């Protein structure tokens, strides 16, 4: 690092110093903003893709595949967050973690209350039971998107737009492709998360 | 009246202050992350941070995370104000 800086600086040196400051400001902000977000989006996109496509072909998989992948996803999210190279400590950030926990407890409570005990075991793929299960699945998928929108209010519009887009796709699929809804969820919902993660990795530099 | 600051004007310290200014006023950046982002060795970074701390421009806090020592740095209100003044003075030189 060159420690020789003329004082006071010439016009060219002042220009160069300001350019360096702008560069450091931009790269630091991006390093913090990007954080582990891209990897976490890709991770959950892949989980949605695998679990939803599997659900399309066999509804019973929701009883073991989703819980298993959710646990893997949560552990991997924690691992990705802790290994991120830029460690920023901000008072009150713990509230973000608490927000996720509270949101999932709230959603979990209503899923337990709304999900009939015999679904999807006794569901007919084209019957009313499956219709109710499809709506409940749609609700479960919109919960993290709701969180993205709320978090986006503080951390940037990208997450807001992603949350809105995927929510619209989740809801639209209920009417557009009822027969292939889980496939739709996997490809559009999971696919959007993967594309968003790849976009961040490619362009947020 | 904006004035150049001799302490901040050093290239390494200018970059350190710029990186810390990118954070929210109450946020702290980890020592290792700062060194890695700016391409500074631990010794070099430590020396510059000590100079900035003695001037009251940064606050250094040593703590433990998972039983491992970790050092966090943040720009103080005084440091932020002096940095802004320094940038303003540089802009004035550019506009002459």
Highlighted features:
heterodimer, A: 205 residues, mainly alpha, 7 helices, 1% strand, elongated, B: 96 residues, alpha+beta, three-stranded antiparallel beta sheet, 5 helices, 3 strands
Structural class of chain A: mainly alpha
State the major sheet of chain A: none
Q: What fraction, in percent, of the residue positions of chain A are helical?
A: over 70%
N-to-C series of helices and strands of chain A: HHHEHHHH
Q: What's the total number of strands of chain B?
A: 3
Distance between the termini of chain B: 16 Å
Shape of chain B: elongated
Roughly what fraction of the amino acids of chain A lie in strands?
under 5%
Q: Could you give the distance between the termini of chain A?
A: 23 Å
Low-confidence stretches of chain A: none
Could you explain the architecture of this structure?
The complex is a heterodimer of chains A (205) and B (96). By secondary structure, chain A is mainly α. In chain A, 76% of the residues lie in helices and 1% in strands. In chain A, α2 (37-57) packs antiparallel against α3. With 96 residues, chain B is α+β, with helices and mostly antiparallel strands. Chain B has 5 helices and 3 strands; from the N terminus they run ααβααββα. The A-B interface holds A 1-3, 5, 7-11, 14-15, 17-18, 20-21, 24-25, 27-29, 31-32, 85-91 and B 4, 6, 9-12, 14-15, 18-19, 21-24, 26-30, 32-33, 36-40, 44, 70, 72, 87, 90-91, 93-94, 96. β1 (88-89) of chain A pairs antiparallel with β1 of chain B, so a sheet runs across the interface.
């Amino acid at each position: 690092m060159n420690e020789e800086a003329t004082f006071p600086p010439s016009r060219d040196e002042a220009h160069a110093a300001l350019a360096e400051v702008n560069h450091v400001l931009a790269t630091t902000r991006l390093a913090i903003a990007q954080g582990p977000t891209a990897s976490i989006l890709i991770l959950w996109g892949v989980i949605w893709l695998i679990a939803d496509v599997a659900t399309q072909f066999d509804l019973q998989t929701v009883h073991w595949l989703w819980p298993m992948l959710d646990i893997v996803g949560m552990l991997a999210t924690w691992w990705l967050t802790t290994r991120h190279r830029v460690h920023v400590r901000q008072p009150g950030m713990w509230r973000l973690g608490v927000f996720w926990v509270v949101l999932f407890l709230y959603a979990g409570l209503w899923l337990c209350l709304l999900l009939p005990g015999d679904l999807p075991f006794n569901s007919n793929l084209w019957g009313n039971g499956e219709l109710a299960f499809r709506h409940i699945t749609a609700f479960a998928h919109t919960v993290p998107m709701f969180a993205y929108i709320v978090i986006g209010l503080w951390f940037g519009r990208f997450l807001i737009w992603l949350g809105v887009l995927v929510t619209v796709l989740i809801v639209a699929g209920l009417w557009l492709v009822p027969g292939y809804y889980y496939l739709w969820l996997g490809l559009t919902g999971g696919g959007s998360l993967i594309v968003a993660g790849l976009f961040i990795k490619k362009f947020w530099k | 009246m904006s004035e150049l600051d001799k302490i901040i004007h050093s290239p390494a310290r200018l970059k350190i202050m710029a990186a810390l200014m990118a954070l929210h006023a109450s946020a702290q950046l980890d020592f290792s992350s700062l060194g890695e982002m700016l391409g500074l060795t631990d010794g070099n970074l430590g020396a510059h941070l000590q100079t900035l701390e003695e001037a009251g421009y940064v606050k250094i806090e040593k703590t433990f995370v998972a039983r491992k020592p970790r050092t966090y740095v943040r720009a103080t209100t005084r440091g932020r104000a002096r940095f802004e003044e320094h940038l303003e003075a540089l802009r004035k030189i550019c506009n002459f």
